[in-house]
Design brief:
Layout: H1 14-18, E1 20-21, H2 32-48, H3 51-74, E2 81-84, H4 87-95, E3 105-109, H5 114-122, E4 129-133, H6 143-149, E5 154-160, H7 172-181, E6 185-189, H8 201-204, E7 208-212, E8 224-228, H9 273-289, H10 291-311, E9 329-332, H11 337-346, E10 349-350, E11 352-354, E12 357-360, H12 368-381
Helix pairs in contact: 2-3, 2-9, 3-9, 4-5, 10-12
């Protein structure tokens, strides 16, 4: 894809023609392609009516296609993937497979996304014990902290490959190796890295991997993928389950559990049909451009963004080294970060904020003019 004209994709996302859209780490914009896929589903629903036709001819094939597309992007086979509603459900499903009377420890960074902590804190009533790894600098967590914490009592090591507040990129492969050596499961939450930092889950060596389409994949809320390592599948019996996680859901067998042999055993109830089509529209574009191309362009924009922040004498709370950062930069603007963020929205500049900093997350369709507009507005607000 060398020499690809990424600006041509701006027309695919109408909102970026009107706004400086620098908030894809919170919500990726909807594309015209996603709208057209959704319209196709709505037309099929309106025309066919009968659920047997719509589900069997449209929704279930669309789910299979979505798994193939995402699987190709992360190096997984489609039957190693489940579709669920969000990372919270994915993590709870994994946690429900653990016998907490044996190994009890869950290793987690204090910089991980809150839902990861909430899920495993709830499992404390079954015996889970969370070990929180501190950050010495507020930016990242060193590998040595994971190495010191992981031991023979560890059940699960949670790894946020890209940290949501700072965009630090962790060495997930090495942490997965540490977990494997100790006999623990590695669970990679890659919601902030999927689509912008290339990954191959088989090569990374994780036991589980989860990411959703809400952010960089421009697929909207409601679809999250859960990868489970193939050789683990036969031993995994999630307590959190439903009829779509069964081998033969349409036998309507109320009285027996018979998990699907594939990762579909991690699926629950009736899936969210419409969002599957929207998600496919976003994923098709991301895979068409390619995470490698996206990363190169994005990091060039971030280098430029950091130079503008330095020129404005605003502190940068994310790594300056592009090799150890994801796709977002946290810029300190003071105690009024929330008010500043909302004022920017009024001026058609979209960012979000965490603490006393605004998070700026350019995507492959952004250009330097979007960043210039941000700093022009910040000059009046900070």
């Amino acid at each position: 894809m060398q020499g690809m004209d990424l600006t041509s994709y701006r027309a695919e996302f109408p909102v970026v023609e009107r706004k400086s859209y620098l908030i894809s780490a919170s919500l990726g914009p909807v594309s015209l392609r996603a709208r057209s896929y959704l319209d196709g589903y709505m037309d099929a629903w309106a025309e066919k009516g009968a659920p047997d036709h719509v589900w069997m001819e449209d929704i279930f094939p669309a789910m299979a296609r979505l798994k193939r597309t995402f699987g190709a992007m992360i190096g997984a086979d489609a039957d190693e993937l489940a579709i669920t509603g969000n990372v919270s459900l994915a993590l709870a499903s994994i946690a429900s497979c653990v016998d907490w009377t044996k190994r009890r420890k869950v290793i987690m960074s204090e910089l991980d996304f809150p839902t990861d902590g909430h899920v495993f804190l709830a499992f404390a009533r079954l015996g889970a014990e969370i070990v929180w790894l501190p950050s010495p600098d507020g930016l990242t967590v060193p590998l040595e902290s994971y190495r010191d914490a992981i031991d023979e009592e560890t059940a699960i090591v949670v790894i946020n490959r890209v940290l949501y507040r700072t965009s630090s990129l962790l060495d997930a492969k090495e942490i997965c190796r540490m977990a494997r050596e100790a006999g623990a499961w590695s669970v990679v939450d890659d919601f902030h890295g999927a689509g912008i930092v290339p990954v191959d889950v088989h090569e990374m060596g994780c036991d589980f991997y989860t990411a959703g389409v809400l952010k960089w994949l421009c697929g909207g809320p409601g679809v999250t993928f859960l990868y489970a390592r193939r050789d683990l599948l036969p031993s995994l019996e999630p307590l959190l389950t439903g009829w779509m996680g069964q081998r033969e859901p349409f036998t309507f067998d109320l009285q027996h559990l018979d998990y699907h042999p594939s990762a579909r055993r991690f699926e629950h109830g009736t899936p969210p049909g419409p969002i599957v089509f929207i998600a496919q529209g976003g994923l098709d574009i991301i895979t068409e451009v390619g995470p490698g191309v996206i990363r190169e362009h994005q990091q060039d924009l971030i280098d430029y963004l950091i130079s503008r922040a330095d020129g404005a004498e605003l502190p940068v709370r994310s790594p300056r080294d592009r090799n150890v950062r994801g796709g977002m930069v946290n810029i300190g603007v003071g105690a009024n970060a929330g008010k500043i963020c909302h004022a920017l929205l009024e001026r058609n500049v979209c960012t979000d904020y965490r603490g006393d900093g605004i998070r700026v997350s350019p995507h492959f369709f952004n250009i330097e003019a979007d960043i210039d507009r941000l700093f022009d507005e910040l000059a009046d607000l900070v």
